[in-house]
Structures are given as C-alpha cells and as structure tokens.
Amino acid sequence: MKIFLVEDETALGESVISFLKTDGYLCEWVKDFDSAFDKVFLYEYDCALIDITLPGGSGLKIVEAIKKNYPKTGIIIISAKNSIDDKITGLDIGADDYLTKPFHLAELNSRIKSVLRRRNFEGSSEILLGNLKIIPGQKGVFVNDLAVNLTKKEFALLLFFVSNKNRVLTKESIAEHLWGDMADMADSFDFIYSHIKNLRKKITDAGGEDFIKSVYGTGYKLSIQ
Amino acid sequence: MKLLTKTSLYYLIFTGFIFAALGIVFYIQLKDIIDEDFTENLYLEKDVINKFVLDSGKLPEQQLYLGDNVTFLRTGHPVDGYLKDTLLINPLEDEEQLFRQLVFPLKIKDQNYTATISKPMFESEDLVENIVYPFTISAFIAMVILFVYTWVLQKQMWKPFYGTLKEFGQFDAKQNTPLRFATAKTLEFRMLNDEIEKMTEKMASDYRNLKEFTENASHEMQTPLAIIRSKMELMIQSENLTAGQAETIMEMFTSITRLSKLNESLLLLAKIENRQFPGNESVKSEDIINRKLGYYEDMINFRKLSVEKIHNASPQIIMNAYLADILFSNLIHNAIKHNLNDGKIIIEFNSDSVVISNTGNRPSGDPEDMFRRFRKESASNDSAGLGLAISKKICEATGFGITYKYNENLHKITVFFK
Fold this sequence. Notes:
The complex is a heterodimer of chains A (225) and B (418). By secondary structure, chain A is of the alpha/beta class. Helices cover 44% and strands 24% of the residues of chain A. Chain A folds into two domains: 2-121, Response regulator (Rossmann fold, 3-Layer(aba) Sandwich); 127-222, Winged helix-like DNA-binding domain superfamily/Winged helix DNA-binding domain (Arc Repressor Mutant, subunit A), CATH 1.10.10. Chain B has three domains: 3-141, Beta-Lactamase; 188-273, Methane Monooxygenase Hydroxylase, Chain G, domain 1 (Up-down Bundle), CATH 1.20.58; 281-416, Histidine kinase-like ATPase, C-terminal domain (Heat Shock Protein 90), CATH 3.30.565. The longest helix of chain B is centred in the N-terminal third of the chain and has 54 residues, at 3-56. The model of chain B is unreliable at 378-382 (pLDDT under 50). The interface between A and B is large, with 43 and 46 residues.
C-alpha cells in the first residue's frame, strides 16, 4: 500500500511516517505545494493525506488534481482549520474524510484503513484474527463462523483495535474515536473500561481468543502475532 | 415621522401662517382705504351741497346721490359738524343697517339748517368682500400648488438618499461585498455614498481579518499541539517504558488533550461572538435532542439514567443548524455528565421553550455564575467549564434566552425562543 503525505510541519510529518511505516505502508512525504502537485501527476497512490494550508498553495487544489488523475486514490484531508466551510468544500471536491489537528495517530491510522477498505474492496473485505472474522462492510463479527452480537459502539471499538493492532491505544484516543468531541464525560474512562470488558466478554463467551490486553498506565492493546 | 412628512408639515404650517398674516394685513389695509374713500365721498357730497347752497341760495330739492339720504332740518343755532356710524332703518329694505352720517351746519339767508347725509355702509362691506374672497381663494390655490410642487420636488430629491439607506440597511459584513452605489447627481448624496462605500469596505475587510485571525490562531495553536501529541503517542508505543515514565507521559498527554479542547472551545466562543454563523435555518429542537440522546444512549444506559420527555408542542426554531446542534448537544451532555447514577433527565418541549432538567447535587455558589466561563464544579472535574458559557453565547447570538434554576434536587435549564 502506497501512502502519500503532504504536510509542511516536519516534526508532525515524521511522527505520521514513523507510525505508518510500522504497519508496512510505503510512504512518500513532501512538504510543499509545488512538489506535491508534481508528484500527483506522476504516481498513483492508494491513499493521500493532504494538509490544506501549505507553503505555495492550497491543499484543496492537490485534492482536485488527484481526483482528476487517479480517481481511485483515497483522500484524507488533515487540517488545523476546524472550519465547517473547509470541511464541506473538501468533501465536495472528492476527499473521503476530514481530520482536524491535533489528531491521534491511531485515529488517522484507523481512518486510512477505513478509506482503503471502502476504496479497494467496496466494503466486502474480511479481516481474520485467529478464529475471529470481521466483515466491516456488513458490521458483522464471527467466531468460528458463528455471529457475535455486538452493539454499534462495541463494533466500532473492535474495528479501532483491529486497525491499530499491536499498538497501545490510550483511553483518550478510544473515547475520542467513539464519542468525538464529547469524549470528556465525567466517568468516561470507567465507561470505556466497561465497554472493553463487555467486548472481551462477548468474544470469549463465543469461544474467541482474548486479544485485547490492558497496558499498565497507558491504555489497551490488541496483541496478535 | 418621515422627513418628507415633517418638512411638508412645517412648510404647510409656515405658508399657512404667512398667507394668513398677509391676508389680515391686506384686509385691514383695504378696509382702511375703502373706509377713507367712503368718508371722503361724504365730504365731497357736503362740498357739493355747500356749493349749491352758496350758488343758488336755497336748499337742494332732490337727493343728489342715489341711496344716500340727505335731510335738512331748520335749527335756531348753527350746530357743530360731526361724523358718526349709526344703525338706521333702511326704508327700502325695511331693516336695520349700518349707516355713516355726516352732520354739518348750513346757513341760508340767516336761517340755520342742520344737514345730515346718511350713507349705507353695506356698499363698502360688499366691496371689501368682493376683493377679499378672490384673494383668499387664489392664495389658497397658490398654497396648494406650492405645497404639491415642493412635495414632489423633495420626494424626487431625496430618492437617492432613501436608495442608499435601503442598501445600507441590507448590508451584511459577512457577505464580504462592500456596497457600490450608482453615482448620485447631488453633491451631498455623492459624498454620503462615497463615505458609506468606504465604511462598508472597511467593515468587510475588518470582518475578514478578524475571521482570518481566529482561524489562523486555531491553526497556529493546533499544529504544535498536534506535534506534541503525536510524539507522545509514539513514545507510548515504546516497549521499554517504565511504569513511572508511562504515567508521566499519560499525564502530559491528558493535559495536551485538555489544552487543545480548550483552544477549540475558546475559538468557537470567539466565532459565535463575531457572529460568524448566520442563523436562518429552520430546525426542530426535538429532532436534534432525539439524535443526541441516541448518540449518548450507551452513556445513559451505563449510568442507568431514565429519560422522560414531555411533549406540549413541537416547536420549529429558526437558527443556525450547526449552533443548534452544539447548543442541544452541550445541554444533553451536561445533563448526563452532572447527573447522579440512577438519576433522571426530564426534557419538556413547549411552544416557546425547551426545558432540560436533571437530578444532581446542589451546586456550590451562585446559580447566576453557572454560565460564566471557567466556573468549576469540583477540582476533580477536568472539564474547563465552557459548555454552558458556549450555550449562553449561542442563545445570545440567536436572540434566545437561557436560564438556570436548582430546585427540588433538579438542575433545570430553560431555553426560551423569542
């Protein structure tokens, strides 16, 4: 999988690239408008991560160029501007998603996975983890081909773990992934704990393996070899 | 009162006064002249009679002037002549009328006579009337014509002004298009238009700058925050963190998250204060609240809260849809967050208000402070306390009212639609 990152902030770009590389992506990173504009005419990428405010021009123009040349490329806009107008414009001209800075790397990773799934397999792909099978397009989860009944939030939680397997997920990033801006409920961390407990219980009760482990002091992790 | 009505009214009062004053002066003057002339005629008659008597040595036999009554009375002594106005019976019309009498002595062959000439005054009154009436009527007509003329003229002259006023009234700095007027022919209006054009240009550019600043501030702050957070996330992934290090990083991580949320909230407040959200969509508070309740369903179940809805009406409100979403989201969020386990939320929909109540502990401090920024309920609560401040700002910007009350163990927030 080839990922194209357009981000002018070196430190942030480094973090993103270093995070994504461990997942085995091939990453290409440019820092300004002109080089980004050249690249999108030459190469096809599976997913492009475009910052809007760039030295030399607007990232929206790059989104348009990608859409024109390689319509199959998934596009995620990453912007510090939490402006509704920009969001609407971005999605209108063909971006698949819009992520506002500061974002969790795990969230970015999960969004990339989701875009790639939608783009390449039209949602019919399957994810296999031991005897656990997940069909994201149908929101279906199976253990030994027997359906496990998960709530909407539990399914989102499982998919978030799967997208970030073998990584520590902080409670903050999980809360933000599930409840967005309103993740700061007084007891939300207990609440997340109970959600995760329920999810694990449902999977183990169905005979599945317990992949989700808590990591002392930091969060949770889905470990799989 | 409209300018045109006002000036017309003043004009009317002024011209009416002038015409009336002139008319009175004219009338008095005219009456004096006619009166004098009348008296002169009497003296003329006297002269004629004197001359006749002097020439012929006898009294005139017939009346010399038609309508005038001349009598001669034989007296012992010569009388003093005088002039007086008196009421007499007019034998022709058999009614009392005002006459002017000139009495003077005559002497024929040592015999004294008293001559009296009585002249009916109605002649002079008729004359005055005949002159005054046409004058009044033509003055009135002149006044009406002048009034209509100035009215039309003024209306025409002020037209560009009203055009400017209308366009200025419709001007909206958010539209980012300064006003442009057609060139006015009147110098003053041209100057006014020029000034307004300059002013709206400045307003639009100030508004744009402010908006850009707000967004740039967001950009400038969020980027370093994004960098710090991403670096920490990478650190957390490291296998060989000690428990102490992990704890420190997590504390930093939580603070960074709070900082970024705070920044976002403050920017939102600034944007609402700058009226960057035009409010013209028709939204249903009930739909939004139901959607929010669905969104927080698992949270509500987790805390075992019961939700009761009372439908008295299903109001349609006109406001910015994004702000409506934030407003009700904040209020529902609040009702869940500050609730007790096994508590309840009561939502009442009225035609002019929505009341959201929830069970909860008695708040410390003044209920009036509820909507102030950064008011904290307790030290353990990590929320910056901007939710209600934002809700209040949204209500202010939309022209709604919002109140808070605590009674019978219920926190009660009411949003009034006006």
